[in-house]
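Continuing from the previous page of notes. For each protein in this section, the sequence appears first, followed by its structure tokens. Read the first protein now.
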Amino acid sequence: MNKYPFGSNNPKSFNAYPRGDFDIKSGTIKRTRSRKSSIYPVRMVKSWANRLHYYYKLHPLFVFSISLAFGVTILIVLSLYEQHYRVLRNYMKLDDGFGSYYPFAKLKNLVMVAGHSVYTSSSCEKADKEDSWFLESYQKNPGQAATFLAHIKEGIESTALDDEALLLFSGGETRKDAGPRSEAQSYWTVADSEGWFGKEESLKWRALTEEHARDSFENLLFSVCRFRELTGTYPHNITVVSYDFKEERFAQLHRSAIGFPESRFLYRGTPAPVTSIEAALKGEALVRTQFQEDPYGCMGSLKRKKLGRDPFHRSVPYPKGCPEIEGLFRYCGAAPYRTSLPWTV
């Protein structure tokens, strides 16, 4: 029997001091914080971990598959976001009041004339004569030189119709026996000797060259990069000038390879000499097949042909002037390039 009236089991028992630490000096009670709020998240995590462990024991393959799929999804989302962010970040035009840094910043559209030969004559008065040009065996046809002039004139006229267009003659130093002279510079020189076909005042200042391309795909890709170097941005519209029988190669194969929108791509074709059209069509069919199998011209016969058109071992400066599409320059494969590009963002 309990002799003390204030035992712990007595209904009248009480705590002499409230719960907490009593400070004798200040006469106050230091309340202790409840640990429930800080422990709860830990308990919740442990609970989920225990459940996951339990399900893993019951269905190990299923849980592993779900976890793997979740992880892969996160990686893909982060990768796409990073690529998209990088393109947008690099694509920021260096303006900030210094728009004049790019000499042709106001031009928005590209007209590209693909070069096919090097002008070798010391006089520009015979531009329509075959012996003024360095011709390969398959090009030695009556009227061949006239087709080069037709391309130059078509490029000038197409550019003259658009006050916001930049004209680029494209083509490198592709012929060893012609010396270190580029196709692009040849076309520009001939255009200048012809007085720009009556449009010198309005057009000469916005007609330039791209002097490194070694095949038709590089004519397009390198000209896009050259446009970026000169304007600080990428072309909104592209017009390509070449032979009419090459339209499918440029407008479908090459355009698709760089992912440029079809609605903003225009092709201007001029006819080949009548005496060579049959051989030209046969050769074009072969080249189209090669580009269908190797869209970026980086393997097999297309690569060997390209190397053969670089007799002076010129270093290609691109993509230094167009860092946003560096991945496109480095890519080599039969499948289309899938990463975001400035004209697809």
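Done with the first. The second protein uses the same format. Note its length before scrolling.
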Amino acid sequence: MAITLNAGLRREYEQLFESCRIRPERMAEVERTIDKLVQHRARYDTVTARRGVPWSFVALVHNMESGGNFSCHLHNGDPLTARTVQVPAGRPKQGSPPFTWEESAADAMALKQLGERTDWSLAGLLFQLERYNGWGYRRYHPHVLSPYLWSFSEHYHSGRYVADGRWSETAVSKQCGAAVVLRRLAEKGLVDFTDRPRVTLYAATDAEPAAREPLVPRHTTRRTADAERAEHLQRWLNTFPGIFLKVDGIPGDNTSGAYRTATGHYLPGDPRAGQDPPCTQAISS
């Protein structure tokens, strides 16, 4: 039976993403991956312009499939000096080698029938990432969330395919999952989703937060005795559409900026607090 993005699967992806916590011991590696992807964003944007696929999806697949190597076909890792030899063979069909990476990547997206009409909501993007790798985990080992998405997060512990069709219950993925990188990109404000645009100033949105606004800590760039209160605030802010904060108990610039987005004010002690306009002026503008 074909796997489709029905309402149940959509909500599963959303809940997993919202509750995704990156393992602290893996955070440095995740940050290095983010830096590498952002460094080459212009190249990913070129594929976006050609196919209408979000730059983040292209970047994540590139990182997962070839470690970010720009000398290989995105289809299967074959060299760009010729058409692909491995499955899918003979790609790209148009043009003559050597191919640019951008030409090959656009062809790989076309072969997967991915483009501007694809559902690029949060759940839709996660669905396409899992589809790109295959449904083996979901079909045959549903007790293990695919490490292709969730490795390096608290959602994944062990279990993986160590070769085609060969399963190990104890093997652990050593590659950061695509959804984990995506979560960190969202936390850093580097991606948006079609169904979750970042809320406008003063939370001009129809959505209601899940809980009443908590007492706020003072702005700081280090963890203090107020860490529990800061974590509470970060979880509350994460209930607003388009806000994704790392829940680390440090009410720094990102948390303060998100608080201003939701309420119109920076956290107490934030040097930017003097920039807050009077509420009446901001609301009427």
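What the second structure shows: The CA atoms of residues 21 and 154 lie 6 Å apart. Confidence is low (pLDDT under 50) at residues 200-211, 278-285. We return to this in next week's lecture.
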